[in-house]
Design goal:
- The chain has a domain of 191 residues.
- The strands form 4 sheets. A 5-stranded mixed sheet has the order 8-14-13-12-15, with no helix packed on it.
- The chain is globular and about 55 Å long.
- Helices cover 19% and strands 35% of the residues.
- The chain contains 5 helices and 15 strands.
- The protein is of the alpha+beta class.
- InterPro entries: Glycopeptide_resist_protein (IPR052913), Vancomycin_resist_VanW (IPR007391).
């Protein structure tokens, strides 16, 4: 049997634990000698490196739609702290470094959030949709991924998106961050906008890098283990360079694994742990 954390045994300790984690979390960034991106510029950089969008509303959660409306409210607060951010050479992007005080003037509303492996509601719920979008954008750039955490459980099907599976990035203040570093000589910029149905992201750059990036899935399998169903998928990057001679390079970025907490379609084969598709 999995051991319970002390805060599960004594819930009254959670506020103290959160304060401790937050203090260490931000103190660590203060003294880690990294230069964190914090500058915004209203004038956008001239070249678009990548753009994407994602529907704001997921109607398959099983929860009241008010939590979807609250999520959109929370996303707009957080996105305002990131929109038009400049990432200079040698600077590091940190989701929480930027979003830390996004709700200082106007509090977050209750949205869906995963706590102790269970989907529930809490203030600020839904911000992972923003971190997911940002991570998807970063994968289509020369930025170096420093920290990323995938969701351990997928409780409902993904909304329609141009992204393959396994490219999510969950965040939890004090515990899990999304960080990338600009190890290039170029300057990049993030733009986040909203329309009636979607959140839209653009990654801009100061000059044409004559490259394009493609992220796709390799082998995907579903299997049972300890009476649970898991999804394991290869995430592959393809970089295409344009010049006098065009060429491409493909590499496996990682294998993403998560538990499936909803009923899969009947046409999807499910094996046992350790099996391989032919």
């Amino acid at each position: 049997m999995k051991r319970k954390r002390i805060t599960q045994i004594f819930p009254w300790l959670m506020p103290i634990r959160k304060y401790q984690r937050l203090a260490c979390f931000y103190m660590g960034m203060k003294f880690d000698r990294e230069h964190y991106a914090a500058t915004k510029k209203e004038i956008l950089l001239p070249y678009e490196l990548f753009e994407s969008s994602c529907p704001l509303y997921n109607y398959k959660t099983g929860f009241d739609l008010v939590y979807q409306e609250n999520k959109v409210f929370n996303l707009k607060l957080a996105a305002a702290a990131i929109d038009k951010l400049i990432i200079l050479p040698n600077e590091t992007f940190s989701f929480w470094k930027l979003v830390r005080y996004a709700d200082k003037a106007i509090p977050y509303k209750d949205g869906l959030i995963m706590i102790n492996g269970k989907l529930t509601t809490a203030p600020g719920g839904g911000l992972c949709q923003l971190s997911n979008l940002l991570y998807w954008m970063f994968l289509h750039s020369p930025l170096t991924i420093v920290e990323r955490h995938g969701h351990t459980i997928k409780d409902f099907p993904d909304p329609p998106s141009d992204a393959p599976i396994g490219v999510d990035a969950t965040v939890s203040e004090g515990w899990l961050d999304l960080k990338v570093k600009n190890n290039t000589k170029e300057t990049l910029q993030i733009q986040i906008t909203f329309d009636q149905n979607c959140i839209n992201g653009r990654l801009l750059i100061n000059k044409d890098c004559k490259k394009s990036y493609e992220v796709l899935n390799g082998k995907t399998i579903y299997y049972r283990s300890n009476n649970k169903i898991f999804e394991e998928v290869e995430v592959i990057s393809k970089v295409i360079s344009y010049g006098s001679i065009s060429n491409s390079a493909t590499r496996l970025l990682y294998k993403n694994k998560c538990e499936i907490g909803y009923q899969l379609p009947e046409n999807i084969p499910i094996g046992e742990k350790g099996f391989h598709y032919e």
